[in-house]
Amino acid sequence: MSAFSLTASTDEQIKTFKGERIDPDVTSGHLHHLTQDQQAAFNVFKDILVKAQLYSPDRPHPTHDEPTLLRFLRARRFDPHKAMKQFADAEAWRKKHNVDVLYATFPADEFESARRFYPRWTGRRDKNGLPVYVYRLASLTGPQQKELFSTPPARRYQRIVALYEAMTRFVLRLCTHLPHPTQPTPVSSVTTIIDLEQVSLPTLWSLRSHLQEASALATANYPETLSTIAVVNSPSFFPTVWNWIKPWFDEGTRRKVHVLGKDPGPTLRTLIDPKDLPKPYGGDLDWKFEDEPALDDDAKAVIGEMPKGPVVFEDGQVRRPEPPESADTAASSS
After folding, report:
1. pLDDT of 320 strictly over 90
2. Does the N-terminal peptide bond of residue 131 adopt cis geometry, omega within 30 degrees of 0?
């Protein structure tokens, strides 16, 4: 099996990935695993956010949870002032787009339909307890691609925002609540399989703006939510594609990307248990991209079945999000 790792040194070509394991470090820089210097930086970061009135730690409901704050700090290599700049920009972006109201009032049927165009949670987790997402780009061809681009750009953007809110406010929180090997460290990132089977170069070119928009939104406003990106069934022209898309990612993200070729199973099974890995990628799970999440037993014990529409997971329960009391709730459509 051919496997590659896309690191910062692969500016002009993809180098062979040495080894057959994917073993990401999911604890360094996270809660309960901070070095003395990192903890000091975290304390400074929180202090300057409080002084800037961007964060309130008051219990029982702080304005932001610590895993979210640490994602911004890790994205800026524990430089509190650089992290504060990105955090402030993200908060201004949330206010500009009225994100809390948008998510709370997003129509459930449109939300469910939008899942077809973006990475989907399988309902399963990898060996570290991180949710496993799949993005099969061949599912965005033909009529589905026409449907995607018939949606006004502003509404497409809002759909991306709603789905990222679901990931951070529902999926990651649920997976933190479920038993996982790194407890009590929260789960704050995902493992994503990107499937390029039967995808042509013209198709990828036609989708480039769609993919770039989602990537730019996530990098700026939902940093450090990607743990591992496994590209499977990569075509021979993938090095050309990588040269297009690598500017979309910072160095840290590029180091998380692994290209596994046509037989990804042996490598993916080092990261994901076969029972939680979909059959198309070398596992035993009967799941394909068009399917609803196939929740594992632990998740079923907590939430029963996958809820429809926008939801949040708080205090061990699923609930519908509520818009801020002071907000205008007329943002449910473009």
Report:
1. yes
2. no
The predicted-structure confidence for 86-109, as pLDDT tens digits, reads as follows 999 999 999 999 999 999 999 999
Contacts 24+ apart (CB under 8 A), 164-168: 164/217, 164/218, 164/221, 164/222, 164/225, 165/99, 165/102, 165/103, 165/310, 166/103, 166/111, 166/310, 166/311, 167/121, 167/131, 167/222, 167/225, 168/68, 168/222, 168/225
Q: Would you state the structure tokens that stand for residue 137, as one six-digit string? A: 């780009």
CA nearest neighbour of 39 among 28, 24, 23, 55 = 28
- Tokens of residue 66, six digits: 């610590």
pLDDT tens digit string along 117-142? 999 999 999 999 999 999 999 998 88
Which range has the worst mean pLDDT, 201-205, 277-281, 303-307?
201-205
- Which tokens hold the place of 314? 């708080």
**Identity of the residue numbered 6:** L
Q: Which of 182, 258, 193, 188 is nearest to 224 (CA)?
A: 188
For the cut 50, the answer to whether the pLDDT of residue 1 exceeds it is no
**CA-wise closest residue to 66 among 86, 46, 85:** 46
**Cβ-contact 58, 92 below 8 angstroms:** no
Cα-Cα-Cα-Cα dihedral of 233, 122, 218, 13, to 10°? -20
β-pairing, 312-314 vs 190-195, is: unpaired
Q: Has residue 9 got a pLDDT over 60?
A: no
Residue 246 pLDDT: 79
Question: What's the rounded Cα separation, in Å, for the pair 75 and 78?
Answer: 8
Cα angle: 231, vertex 254, 7; to 5 degrees: 95
Beta strands 312-314 and 317-319, pairing class: antiparallel
Are 150 and 144 spatial neighbours (Cβ–Cβ below 8 Å)? Answer: no
DSSP 2-56: --EEE-TT-SSSPEEP-SS------STTSTT---HHHHHHHHHHHHHHHHTTS--
Token pair belonging to 152: 């006004």
Dist CA 7 CA 253 (whole Å): 9
